[in-house]
Each structure stands twice: as C-alpha cells, then as structure tokens.
Amino acid sequence: MSDVSGMSEDVSRRVIAVVAATQHLAPETITLDSTFEQLGIDSLDGIGILFAIENEFNVSIPDDDAKSIRSIREMVEGVSKLVAAAGETGAALAG
Fold this sequence. Notes:
Shape: globular
Structural class: mainly alpha
Number of strands: 0
Low-confidence stretches: none
Largest sheet: none
Helix content: 55-70%
Strand content: under 5%
C-alpha cells in the first residue's frame, strides 16, 4: 500500500507542476483542495491542462471523465487510477 501513497504523492506533485506551468501560477499557490474556479481556470484552460497532463503521464483521459473534473484532487485521483491501470497492463504484458 505504501507504493500507492508514494505514487499518489508523486502524481500530486507532477499534476500541480503541470497546472502551474500551463496557467503561469506559482506551484505553492496550488493545493489538492484548489478548485479550477478558485484558480481562474476556465473550460478552454482545462483543455490545455488535460493535454499537458496526458503528455506528462502518457495516459489518455476519457472525455466523460474530463468533463467531471473540477479540482486538483479530482485530477490527481483520476490520473492515479489511469497510471495504476497502465502499470498493471504493462506488468501483464511484460509477464
């Protein structure tokens, strides 16, 4: 289980870094509890963030899931699940 929390911490840090870079915000101003609305992120900004997140983590975020993301925490949780699923798929292919 410690791998999952360690992975989530890494995912959190990387998601915040991507959001900060794409929105020209200081990373220390972004927390897991920050909402897109609080950060001034509109739907167009959100699309840019999603592309950057997909590139950063080499995942594909389904459109339906993307539409429901409203906070940094929701994005981290979604990315964590996608990364874990990709890891399991990779492990199954490697094994």
